[in-house]
Structure formats: structure tokens, C-alpha cells
Amino acid sequence: MIEVVALCMFLSGDLKEHLYVPDGFSKCLEMKRIAERDYKPNVRYMCGNVMAQMSEDGKHILAISKK
Fold first, then answer.
1. Predicted pLDDT at 13
2. The 61-65 sheet, strands edge to edge
3. CA 38/CA 55 separation, integer angstroms
4. Distance in angstroms (rounded) separating the CA atoms of residues 24 and 34
5. Which residues, in sequence order, are CB contacts of 62 under 8 Å at separation 6+?
6. pLDDT (0 to 100) of residue 67
7. Got the DSSP string for 28-62?
8. What 3-state DSSP class applies to 24?
9. Over the stretch 14-53, which tens digit does the pLDDT of each residue have?
10. Mean residue pLDDT across the chain
11. Cα gap 67→50, rounded to integer Å
């Protein structure tokens, strides 16, 4: 497990989706603003440092655990 920046989508308080952002926090916040333009009720986006298990190629998150 390594610490990475991820954009997380919460639906009704439950983590439903996550996206690895290799370019750091500023890119994650930009992506969050774009996602929030298509705001839907009960959907919340959040950027954060998370502990993640990465795939062999280092491009995809296989699992996220809470810090």
C-alpha cells in the first residue's frame, strides 16, 4: 500500500467510485470542479491522500483503505 492522491465520489455517504490522479492535488481539485458542474443530488466529490494498492503497471488503483 502506498499513499496517492485520488478523486473520490460519494453517493449518499458511501464511497462509490475513485480515480487515481498522478498529477497531484491541483489537478484533482480541477477535476473535482468539473465533476461538480454536473452536480446530482446526494453526490459529493472529494480529493484526498489515500492508502492504495496499485496495479502492476502503477496506473490503476486496485483497492483503497481509509487512513
1. 85
2. 14-20, 2-11, 43-54, 61-65
3. 30
4. 16
5. 52, 53, 54, 55
6. 54
7. HHHHHHHHHHT--TTEEEEEEEEEEEEPTTSSSEE
8. coil
9. 888 888 898 999 999 999 999 988 877 788 999 999 888 8
10. 86
11. 6
> For position 65, what pLDDT does the model report?
73
Q: Report d(CA 40, CA 12) in Å as an integer.
A: 11
Grid coordinates of 2? 502506498
Name residue, grid cell 484533482: 28
C-alpha radius of gyration, the chain, whole number: 12
Report the C-alpha gap between 32 and 7 in whole angstroms.
7
Q: Does the reported pTM lie above 0.85?
A: no
Q: How many residues does the chain have?
A: 67
